[in-house]
Design brief:
β3 and β4 form a beta hairpin. The chain has one domain: Glycoside hydrolase/deacetylase (TIM Barrel). It is an alpha/beta fold. Strands 1, 2, 5, 12 and 13 form a five-stranded parallel sheet that branches. It starts with a strand and ends in a 13-residue tail after the last helix. It is built from eleven helices and 13 strands. 37% of the residues lie in helices and 17% in strands. Bound molecules: zinc ion (ZN). The site of zinc ion has 5 residues, from loops.
Length: 328
């Protein structure tokens, strides 16, 4: 049996950069303006790398990115043509490799479900004081928009650490919202990072009324985040950033440490860190990381989507104990 390896891609949306919308300061730390939009050829380039290496994982599609409309009825400042092209490419080229799910509604301001208007607080702060009675319809709305756009989501990603203060309520809400919108009794979610934890693996977070919810953590850091604020684009720089996950000889890095401790390497990344504020250095780092993993570990690991990991965990619960951070 091979060990699952997977890639988390947080924050994608058609054209709109949710990072630009929610970031406190719209300047990189080396003083360049943060770019507000990502052209569609960036998605094409991402898909080229995914297909080249057989990368699999989880890819968010944010239903109401940055409180600028929604992906079904249209987005402010985005042409219908560009929006449809983005969604069509995700369906044709991302879905064969990645589990697609919402990252709640906006990844920016929380939304009044009655009116669609933005509230004054962001979704993270809003969620921190909610319970299952308010979280369930909020999550259901996110899942329903993706369904209307032609996807079949059975899981969610937490924008920031949405729900972490009320995690039991959040878990119950996800499981119920997935069941009510899709009929699926199996669901997954991503909230926590288990970095530098021995044997870091997903676990069954909830099992009730015949429904099962699997928590899938990130276990490796987003090494490409640093490329947002770095103008350096040399091959040497790309190689150095990739080294943090796996070195060229395959002997060191977080991937190697996680695997040797008995954990599953689940690599975190973000749409904006792969874009590297327009330089796309992060995509080159991903290309290098995947190539090193496949070169040195093809006989030990297997790329898996989040739905494949979810099913594997449900079939083998004894190999996926609840981690210390979630024990009462
Ligand atoms: Zn995010």
């Amino acid at each position: 049996m091979k060990v699952p390896v997977s890639l988390i891609v947080d924050d994608p949306a058609p054209i709109i950069s949710v990072y630009y919308e929610h970031v406190a300061r719209r300047t990189t730390s080396d003083g360049r303006p943060i770019i507000p939009t990502f052209p569609n050829d960036f998605l094409d380039q991402f898909c080229d790398i995914v297909e080249k290496h057989g990368i699999k994982g989880k890819f968010s599609v944010i239903p109401m990115p940055g409180n600028k409309g929604d992906i079904v009825n249209g987005l402010d400042g985005v042409s219908r043509e560009d929006l449809d092209e983005w969604l069509d490419t995700v369906k044709a080229r991302v879905l064969p490799h990645f589990t697609v799910g919402p990252e709640m509604l906006t990844h920016h301001k929380a939304v009044d479900l009655e009116t669609g208007e933005a509230l004054s607080m962001n979704e993270r702060d809003w969620a921190s004081t909610q319970d299952r009675t308010t979280l369930t319809p909020y999550i259901s709305k996110a899942l329903a928009i993706l369904k209307d756009a032609g996807f079949s989501p059975i899981g969610v990603t937490s924008p920031w650490d949405f729900g972490i203060e009320v995690e039991d309520e959040y878990e119950a809400a996800i499981s119920r919202a997935v069941y009510e919108t899709s009929g699926s009794k199996e669901a997954w979610f991503f909230l926590r990072q288990l970095r530098n934890v021995p044997k870091a693996r997903p676990w069954v977070a909830l099992s009730e009324e015949g429904r099962t919810l699997v928590a899938i953590p990130g276990t490796l850091k987003d090494s490409t985040w640093q490329t947002i604020s770095c103008p350096e684009v040399s091959d040497e720089y790309v190689s150095r950033v990739a080294d943090e996950i796996i070195t060229a000889d395959g002997k060191e890095g977080e991937f190697v440490r996680t695997l040797s401790s008995g954990g599953y390497p689940i690599i975190l990344s973000h749409w904006q860190s792969l874009m590297s504020n327009g330089l796309r250095t992060g995509l080159r780092v991903l290309d290098e990381i995947a190539s090193r993993i496949n070169k040195h570990y093809a006989d030990k690991v297997e790329w898996m989507s989040f739905e494949e990991i979810m099913r594997f965990v449900i079939a083998n619960p004894e190999e996926h104990p609840i981690p210390e951070c979630r024990k009462a």
